[in-house]
Amino acid sequence: MSYAGTVNTIMLGAGPDVARRSGRTKHRRKIMLRTITLTAFAVAALSFPAAGDSIQADEARIIEAFAQALGGKDDALAPHLAEAAVYMPSTGGRFEGAESIAQSLAAFPDVADFTAEIDDRVPLGGDHMLYTGTYTVTLPPEMGGATLPGEYVLVAKNTPEGLKLLRHVAFPARGMDR
Predict the structure, then answer these.
(1) Beta strand pairing call for 162-172 and 81-88
(2) How far apart are CA 140 and CA 173, in angstroms?
(3) CA angle, residues 111, 70, 90, in degrees to nearest 5
(4) Mind spelling out the 3-state secondary structure of the chain?
(5) What is the phi-psi region of residue 44: left when phi exceeds 0, alpha when psi lies from -120 to 50, beta otherwise?
(6) 71 contact partners, CB below 8 Å, separation of at least 6
(7) The pTM is what?
(8) From CA 50, how far away is CA 54, in angstroms rounded?
(9) pLDDT tens digits for 26-61?
């Protein structure tokens, strides 16, 4: 008999056989309780929208806002910017704040197409997240219509209003000249 069996025997005031059966029953109850608890968590997770889904929707909105801003709607990115956001495009320069960023986008020729992919998400602690990814920009026909690949690093903060961009640095794909 194990030490646990001895304790059960003493606690129950019964013989070793009853204690062993009681120990198995307790073990089964624990397994059943764990199963019920995990089932409850699974049902709760399926019943409520997951925070991850909300963040992915915000990420998609930000990518769409970049596409709109680069396509001519220069202030499309403004709702997604933190107050002190900094934007550093691959063409050079440093622009701080929504107004300065909108002006920099207005000065850039409207692109024919823009796509972006998120390659990695790295939690930075608290509500901050670091994103790395790739993008392509297709220049307008008057600029030759070339499609240029690039990479970016972005830091965002999850707020009650959604993701807000704090820093965005874009650069040409490795091995490409500006």
Answers:
(1) parallel
(2) 20
(3) 90
(4) CCHHHHHHHHHHCCCHHHHHHHHHHHHHHHHHHHHHHHHHHHHHHHHCCCHHHHHHHHHHHHHHHHHHHHCCCCCCCHHHEEEEEEEECCCCCCEECHHHHHHHHHHCCCCCEEEEEEEEEEEEECCEEEEEEEEEEECCHHHCCCEEEEEEEEEEEEECCEEEEEEEEEEECCCCCC
(5) alpha
(6) 110, 111, 114
(7) 0.67
(8) 7
(9) 544 544 444 443 333 333 333 334 455 788 899 999
Strands 147-159 vs 113-125: parallel, antiparallel or unpaired: unpaired
pLDDT of residue 50: 43
The string of pLDDT tens digits covering residues 130-144 is: 999 999 999 999 989
Sign of torsion over alpha carbons 140, 144, 119, 92: negative
Kindly report the number of other CB atoms within 10 A of residue 156's CB atom.
27
CA distances from 128 to 13, 154, 166 (A): 57, 10, 9
